[in-house]
Each structure stands twice: as C-alpha cells, then as structure tokens.
Amino acid sequence: MLSLNETVQQTKSMLAMERIVAPSMIALMLALGAAPLAAFAQSSDAVIGQVTKIDPTAEKITIKHGPIKKFGMDEGMTMVFHVLDPQLLKKVKPGDKVRFVPDRNNGQFTVTQIDKVK
Question: Given this model, what pLDDT does residue 23 score?
Fold first, then answer.
C-alpha cells in the first residue's frame, strides 16, 4: 500500500503526463484526419484534367484529361463522367484545372473525387 506522500507524487506525475499526452493525441487525430486528403493527392489513380462542362441535372461532368492508365487509355481525351455525389459538381466550374479519381460504376465512367489544382 502506498503512503499518502507517494500517492500525491503519483497523482502529480499522472497529471503532468496528461498535459503532455493530450496535446499529442489531438495532433495525432488532426494528422489522421488529413490522411485521406494526402492519400488523394498521392493516389496513383488520380488524373489531371480541365473541366469543360457541368450538367448538374444529369449529374455529369465533362473533363478534358490526360491518360487514364487504369482503363488502358494511353492518350488524353475529353470524356463525360457521371458523379455519384452531386456535391462534387459544386467544387469546380468549367475552366478549372482539376485532379480527379475516375472509376467505373454500373458500366459508367464515374468521378469519385475531384479537387481544383493550380
């Protein structure tokens, strides 16, 4: 059994540790929260292109883009993509240079992520 003095010392040590650990945990959570964005930026599936048209009613976006290796497209072209999340269309406008992740969903070429680039 610990003496009162030892218990007080342990309590002070634990409180001091909490002051160190809590900010570290917050920093870690913030870093992990940013991980999906970093993963998108580094995604090997990401393609650079330029938005030429947006059709919110049809939930489609037209993008002039470079090669899309995952679909065996070795040359750039202009294509119409469906979007599963119509909110993606609000992030960009015609003329914007973008980095996007294409996919195929139910046989349709689809944009799953998109962000403006400089």
Answer: 63
